[in-house]
Amino acid sequence: MTATASPIDSDAALGTPLLSVEGLTIDLPGHPGQRGLVEDVSFDLHRKRSLALIGESGCGKSLTSMAILGLLPPGLPVRAGSVRFDGVDLLDCDERDLRRVRGGPVGIVFQEPMSSLNPTMTVGDQIAEARRIHLGERKATALRAAEALLDRVGIPNARQRIRSYPHELSGGMQQRVMIAAAIACDPKLVIADEPTTALDVTIQAEILELLRDLRRDLDLAVLLVTHDLGVVADFCDDVVVMYAGHVVERTSVRGLFYEPRHPYSSALLAAVPQAGQPRTRLTVIPGRVPPAGRFPAGCRFQPRCEHALPDQCARPQPEAELSGGHRTRCGRVAAGAVTLKGVPRG
Ligand SMILES: Nc1ncnc2c1ncn2[C@@H]1O[C@H](COP(=O)(O)OP(=O)(O)OP(=O)(O)O)[C@@H](O)[C@H]1O
């Protein structure tokens, strides 16, 4: 695995972020004000860049991405924070305003296309409907655009395929339709939550390639939710590592792979097989992510961390900024008491 993304860019050089999540906190239902499902999550995504939200299952990646567009399941309250997109705080928007954002300036691609596509409408009508709502196009114009979009995302015989229903397409083709719908109204940002996880490995690579081309051609910013570090290395510029609802590290992809600054990130990297390295036993992170409601005080990774000091790590760990905008939520790393291993260079 190679981290090919750009070196760490300073926030100042990149200008105002397109998306800025600040202090996002989501309560565990029935436990207001306690250790949240997602707590004090902050990150910036700049125009034309791609940022990965990574972490093991249950770390809060999906809740964070759903909260951005007001799509949290009912009963999950956002206690605090802001989500500024293009200057507007989406947490202050009502449902009507959010509908204008979703599928318009922000496209969404979910893991399971079948649960997002309408099974009773042809794929052409679904894409055309988005253009009619968001861009005010007439039906015939919108259908022509839908055909061009299906062609753009690599669906053969687009003229015929606009009349297909989702169940008549393979999983990979359905995901291409989802992507066509996501880019239908000239978005600035696409949020993709595990877009390739449900697909065969060969199809996964094709879908990632498609997303990469679209990102370049359409100047898109992409927020990618994934637990696949290979995808992160191939596709992303920046990365936010989440653990048990906290952001534990924020950096460039290069920063993460070569100079991780949180023991959890370093442990994640050690658990990935390295091509070209002699076969050795893979390191496993002992234990598992604590269930919601059982998060420990202070550093939530502390019970699984080989570098933890019980007294110190049970205290709150504020995020510390290191050189080049690299941020960690480990007080021991920030103080220089712990040195961590990344992947070998070369
Ligand atoms: N509706 C809900 N009510 C209570 N807890 C929930 C609800 N939805 C999610 N959670 C909990 O919130 C935590 C974060 O879930 P989330 O789906 O964001 O994790 P994730 O990192 O995206 O995991 P995965 O990779 O498996 O999708 C988990 O502990 C989950 O059990």
TrEMBL record:
It is found in: Cell membrane. PROSITE patterns: ABC_TRANSPORTER_1 (PS00211), ABC_TRANSPORTER_2 (PS50893). SUPFAM superfamilies: P-loop containing nucleoside triphosphate hydrolases (SSF52540). One of its GO terms (molecular function) is ATP binding. InterPro entries: AAA+_ATPase, ABC_Ni/Peptide_Import, ABC_transporter-like_ATP-bd, ABC_transporter-like_CS, Oligopep_ABC_C, P-loop_NTPase. Keywords: ATP-binding, Cell membrane, Membrane, Nucleotide-binding, Transport. Residues 19-269 form the ABC transporter domain. It is a peripheral membrane protein. Gene3D superfamilies: P-loop containing nucleotide triphosphate hydrolases. Belongs to the ABC transporter superfamily. This is ABC transporter ATP-binding protein. It comes from Actinophytocola glycyrrhizae.
